[in-house]
Design a protein that fits this description.
Mean pLDDT: 89
Shape: flat
Structural class: mainly alpha
Number of helices: 5
Number of strands: 0
Length: 100
Amino acid sequence: MGRFTKLGIPDAQFFAAFVGVDEIVCGAPLIVGLLTRLTSIPLLIDILVAIATTKIPLLSKAGFWASMHEAGTDFCMQLGLIFLLIVGCGSLSFEERLSR
């Protein structure tokens, strides 16, 4: 909650809990391959807000290379979620096994 307050996010207590629940509720099914496309949407929104609130301001303060160094993991997660949103789950997922 302290980080959300420091970033200036309104109602930080609510949104900190909301993001935590979102990451658990959507992340767990995504790991096992259930509702892959559906659960990737809230996580994609979550990571886009994280990039906008933490990495974009860093770009103006520390410069391009420092910002890209800090944002590498965030951009990888974003691209992975976009991939899962477009392609869906793989052949070893629970979603694929249930559809057979």
